[in-house]
Amino acid sequence: PGLGAWTSALYNGGVQRIYGLEPAPAYINHLQELAAPAGEDISILKKDGYNWETYIDLKEDQYLGSLVDTDWSRLHPRLMFTGIIPKTSVGEQLLAQFATCIINRMALHTFGRIQMALWLPDQLLSKFTSGPGSPARCKMGVVTEACASVSVVYSTETAVFPKAMYHLVHVKPFPKKLLKSDWDVFEYVLRHIAVMPRQPLSKMVR
Predict the structure, then answer these.
(1) pTM passes above 0.90
(2) Quick one: which of 59, 60, 7 has its CA closest to 34?
(3) Cα–Cα distance, 20 to 41 (Å, whole number)
(4) What is the rounded distance in angstroms from the CA atom of residue 193 to the CA atom of residue 66?
(5) What percentage of the chain reaches a pLDDT higher than 70?
(6) Counting Cβ atoms within 10 Å, is residue 58 exposed (0-12), middle (13-18) or buried (19+)?
């Protein structure tokens, strides 16, 4: 997908209502022009998906306020979050924060048990999904494993601009997180393991 291509694909595929987040003035006018023929079915909002205030704003009645569903025994029947995560350190930070938000039911996940469909570059997919023993195993992957299932829906070397290997992944939060401890304790241990992976656990968490 390029500028607006993924939104167009969703709309043409039958998604009934789309809110697009785009804070950059250089892009938002173009996106709004592309969305204009769809009328109210597509709304391009000058809001930043990297800013947690955005998700508070989306709880207003004019956006998604009436769709909040706190029943985590089921996937939210009407909302899904999707986007393209860039191959940058900022993209990696955002992806890690998404996992943290699932486990703590923050930001986007205050709306309910929201599925996500994310385009991830090859390197981030490895960090997001690698299991025990993998060199790519990291804090983000452990947090994700504790709160959601991740499956690859589609992989491509040509569909995402600029051309690079990208994967469309389906992230499905668990009804209940797998943690047996408080988040603060879990996060403290993980942080120290990530910083000093070759040190004995007893030394790192002393």
Answers:
(1) no
(2) 7
(3) 11
(4) 41
(5) 93
(6) buried
**Residue 29 belongs to a domain:** no
Q: Look at the chain and count its residues.
A: 206
- Structural domain including 140 reads 68-204
Residue 16 lies in a domain: no
Q: Of the candidates 160, 186, 158, 152, which has an alpha carbon nearest to the alpha carbon of residue 87?
A: 160
Alpha helices in the chain (DSSP H): 5-12, 25-35, 53-57, 89-104, 122-129, 139-147, 183-195, 201-204
Domain count, the chain: 1
Q: Is residue 108 part of a domain?
A: yes
In this predicted structure, the answer to whether residue 188 has a pLDDT above a threshold of 90 is no
Angle in degrees, 0-180, between the axes of helices 122-129 and 89-104, rounded to the nearest 10? 30
In contact, 118 and 171? CB cutoff 8 Å? yes
Q: CA 136 to CA 127: how far, in whole Å?
A: 5
Residue 79 lies in a domain: yes
CA distance 182 to 22: 35
pLDDT digits (tens, 9 = 90+) for 21-72: 999 988 998 899 989 999 999 999 999 999 999 999 999 999 999 999 999 9
